[in-house]
Amino acid sequence: MAKRNGSQGRSRSKKKAMRAKRRKRKLILFCMELLILAGVLGWLWVNAKMDKITTDETFQAKDVENEELSKETKDVLGEYTTIALFGLDNRDSSSFSRGNSDVIMVARIDKETKEVRLVSVYRDTYLKMADLEKTDAYSKANAAYAIGGAQQAVRMLNTNLDLDIQEYVSFDFAAVAEAVDILGGVEIDVTEEESVHLNNYCIETAEVTGKSYDPLPGAGTYTLNGVQAVSYGRIRYTAGDDFKRTERQRLVVNKMVEKALASDLGTINKLIDTVFPKIQTSLGKSEIAAMAVDAFHYKMGENAGFPFDRENKVVSISYQQSGADCVVPVNLAANVKQLHDFLYGTTDYTVTESVQGISDEIVYQTGVNEG
Fold first, then answer.
1. How far apart are CA 144 and CA 122, in angstroms?
2. DSSP assignment, residue 187?
3. What is the model's pLDDT at position 162?
4. pTM confidence score
5. CA 170, CA 86: separation in Å to the nearest integer?
6. pLDDT tens digits for 95-137?
7. How far apart are CA 153 and CA 256, in angstroms?
């Protein structure tokens, strides 16, 4: 009798253990299903957000690839992500096919450290317009976008700076103003002279963006709203002219990135929903998603303006009836060497024959040379 009871007890224990094991398996399967569902929903959310961006399907990397660069140089550049940023001076919102690119920046992201460096190319820099072979095909850098859109503008950067940029992002006044407002403004120290020009620019910026602003009473530290921040970045009639203006633009970008990195998910979601439809890019969904994974690990590094060594001069441009005020590189080749050192740490960079030829032609056409 005792033996049978012991056998029944072991049987009940075994059945209990089997039921517990089945419940555990069901729980594991349920958790896996939840994870799969979360992954699917996450993918659908990301996909929906990516659909808000205007992707430039006509832009092909092969059309802007710099074939003159050596394998060694391409290997170095391959350790970084380099993207061209164009801010268009267009009055029609979301018009990206043509227009003067009054903001031209090269953004370099270190794939390992996630450090971002920005270089502003001065809009009036006298450079070759890329795929035009005539010796008089030189103009201000911002004309490239107006001549042939993003493709021509990227080729212009690659041709003159020995770069191999294959991606770009274009935006307008409205996109920046919206982003600044969603982020709660950016804190900027404004001088008395800057406040006067800022207030003047705000009139037009408000008309273009359809947003409001309050005039600044004078010098001080302010949290600028979207209209004010855009207007601050447009100021050029102070000491330093366009050189100082690009400093202001990079400062606004830095402040925006700092605010974005400190924002909550709700703010980021609103930022995506509102701003993404106001930009155009060559980046595809998968590339944007891959970059987004590391977004909160990015950190802003040093920034600079290009050319480093320059001279202001009135230069004759073929399609203009009178001379144009240009920023002329004092030895383009030397400036390009300095650029590669700043962006990629290549201290012994040797420019291509093409860049050396452009450098020599600029000297010939403008008379601007070292010494």
1. 13
2. E
3. 98
4. 0.82
5. 5
6. 777 777 889 999 999 999 999 999 999 999 999 986 655 445 8
7. 25
Closest CA to 120 of 99, 142, 100, 137: 142
Q: Which of 229, 217, 124, 141 is nearest to 184 (CA)?
A: 229
- Of 276 and 254, the structure prediction assigns the larger pLDDT to 254
pLDDT grade for 44, boundaries at 50, 70 and 90? very low
Which residue type does 320 have? Q
Q: Name which of 22-31, 95-104, 300-309 the model is least confident about.
A: 22-31
CA-wise closest residue to 335 among 314, 358, 312, 366: 358
- The Cα–Cα gap between 276 and 278 comes to 5
Query: Which of 362, 76, 122, 66 minimizes the C-alpha distance to 242?
Result: 122
Q: Enumerate residues 6+ apart whose C-beta is below 8 A from 61.
A: 166, 167, 282
Give residues with Cβ within 8 angstroms of 243, minimum separation 6.
122, 305
Which amino acid appears at position 106 of this protein? Answer: V
| Cβ-proximal residues to 6 (8 Å cutoff; 6+ apart), any chain | none
